[in-house]
Amino acid sequence: MTTIAILGAGKIGEALLAGLIGAGRAPDSLMFTERYPDRVAELTERYGVRGVETDEAAAQADVLIVAVKPQDIDPLLQSLATAITPGTLVVSLCAGLPTALYERHLPAGTPVVRVMPNTPMLVGEAMSAISAGSHAEPAHLQLVEDLLSTVGKVVRVPESQQDAVTALSGSGPAYFFFLVEAMIDAGILLGLPRAVSTELIIQSAVGAATMLRDSGEHPVTLREAVTSPGGTTIAAIRELENHRVRAALLTAIEAAALRSAELGKAHEPG
Ligand SMILES: NC(=O)C1=CN([C@@H]2O[C@H](COP(=O)(O)OP(=O)(O)OC[C@H]3O[C@@H](n4cnc5c(N)ncnc54)[C@H](O)[C@@H]3O)[C@@H](O)[C@H]2O)C=CC1
Ligand SMILES: O=C(O)[C@@H]1CCC=N1
């Protein structure tokens, strides 16, 4: 079985670790690196997976999955440049960082695949978008697609679209959580107990998400079905439009894409 090392087991690294184990992958085919001994002990206990040093991971794993913050990539690339076994597939989960950055620092010909996943990977419901670097062969892309398909959905996109993907599905779960949080507060404003408000909104979110996924209907049709003439929903929609929530979402998601591009530019040569 392919041996996988996750380099940086923070929020997304742990989500991947948990997702892969949850999907039935053998813990002894996985390893991870972390900076802090306490975190290594915590993850080893929780998942039964080995914590190793970067050079050990680089020497032993067939696939290295980079999940450190973009701001922490430089020292890691320096370590990998000398430790990596030629031909090892490098998979980057980092927002904004182009495959060209890895190709500049790692031995010539290193295959790199850029991925933008999201945290629902933790429950096998990730949305991941993958793009091949210039030395990644179709077999490399297929391997990454097969791996990530065990923890959610996968689409292939040109790398030029990855900043937009990052803004949409990479950050996307946070927008939904933000919305849910605000809606629960609205229940509090209306005098409901927090537990009741939370249950009402979370189940409404799960129901709406399931309809979006399974009904085959456009979101507009689904919303129209809730919006009775002269009723309650249209009274709320008018306020959402008055407060320009649609425009705010367009601007917010554009800001996320610009930030992703900026993270990449910070690592351009010169
Ligand atoms: N959190 C999210 O929803 C998503 C995050 N990403 C990307 O995943 C990457 C990680 O993000 P998070 O998990 O949120 O950050 P995080 O800060 O939770 O995790 C990063 C981990 O890497 C460790 N680390 C840093 N340098 C290291 C090194 N040289 N060796 C070993 N471990 C090292 C840190 O100790 C930390 O635990 C980022 O590049 C981010 O853009 C991508 C999609 C979604
Ligand atoms: O906020 C971030 O930068 C990361 C990338 C996508 C989701 N979280």
UniProtKB/TrEMBL annotation:
Pfam families: F420_oxidored, P5CR_dimer. InterPro entries: 6-PGluconate_DH-like_C_sf (IPR008927), NAD(P)-bd_dom_sf (IPR036291), P5C_Rdtase_cat_N (IPR028939), P5CR-like_CS (IPR053790), P5CR_dimer (IPR029036), Pyrroline-COOH_reductase (IPR000304). Its main location: cytoplasm. It is found in: Cytoplasm. It catalyses: L-proline + NADP(+) = (S)-1-pyrroline-5-carboxylate + NADPH + 2 H(+); L-proline + NAD(+) = (S)-1-pyrroline-5-carboxylate + NADH + 2 H(+). Residues 3-96 form the Pyrroline-5-carboxylate reductase catalytic N-terminal domain. It is an enzyme of class 1 (oxidoreductase). Keywords: Amino-acid biosynthesis, Cytoplasm, NADP, Oxidoreductase, Proline biosynthesis. NADP(+) binds at residues 67-70. PANTHER family: PYRROLINE-5-CARBOXYLATE REDUCTASE, PYRROLINE-5-CARBOXYLATE REDUCTASE 3. Catalyzes the reduction of 1-pyrroline-5-carboxylate (PCA) to L-proline. This is Pyrroline-5-carboxylate reductase.
